[in-house]
Amino acid sequence: MGTEETSTKEPLASARARSEVPEQLAGAVGACHPLQALLMGVAVAAAAYVSGRPLRETLVAGAAILVVQAALGLLNDAADAERDRAAGVAGKPVAEGHLPPGNASFLGVCLMVMAVPLALENGTAAAVALLGYLLAGLLSLTPLRRSWLSWLPWAAGFALLPAYLAYGGWGLGVHGSPPTWTMTVLAAALGVGVHLLLALPHLVADNRNGMRHLPLRIALRTGASRLLVAATIWTGLCAVALVLAAFAVGLRQ
């Protein structure tokens, strides 16, 4: 009897495990914030191409950013799983149980490892800049994100993107030259705008969880609708200013 029961349970457990694979794969895709990762990758690739980089360098530059963004998305959702579940946030595969937090964290680490050769293929100095961008993203997962200094990792991370592009080349070694200060400052300002926009859909849940990051503090004073307008205008102006500065002063010093 005991042997028959065990032999019956094993196929059921195996079938259940196989049925969970597609669900977890779909959850992993959703948890990596694919749209945000794709937009960042395409934007950086386009900037690399406009700056005069060959197509192969353009593709690798964009791919490295895409992989890093996907890794940060997975780690972010894994870190926020309990809070998102408690607040009833929709569209979060990890919080909804489609992907275990441990699996999301493991996939995020795997993607970070995968980003290393892609980053180094852009050049040693560019890889260091991308590492700084990744560290800034990880810093945004710390308690700092709950305070009024939540904008700081976003500004620091985006400020490193011009360096990532300016030092970019093909293969190991130092290529290019330092970015202009104008591009660096404008990129940092753009990062703050992106932070404000991305925080808007989660303001209610963040307020319930006791967070007091910069976007929420502003929204509590002005209202979410005014913050949306201000953040959209700010981000749009920064993006336009970056494009104009790229043609006026250039990417590199």
UniProtKB/TrEMBL annotation:
It is found in: Membrane. It is a multi-pass membrane protein. It holds the Pfam family UbiA. InterPro entries: UbiA_prenyltransferase (IPR000537), UbiA_sf (IPR044878). The chain crosses the membrane at residues 25-52, 58-75, 102-120, 126-144, 151-170, 182-205, 226-251. The keyword ATP-binding does not apply. The keyword Transmembrane helix applies. Keywords: Membrane, Transmembrane, Transmembrane helix. This is Prenyltransferase. It comes from Nocardioides mangrovicus.
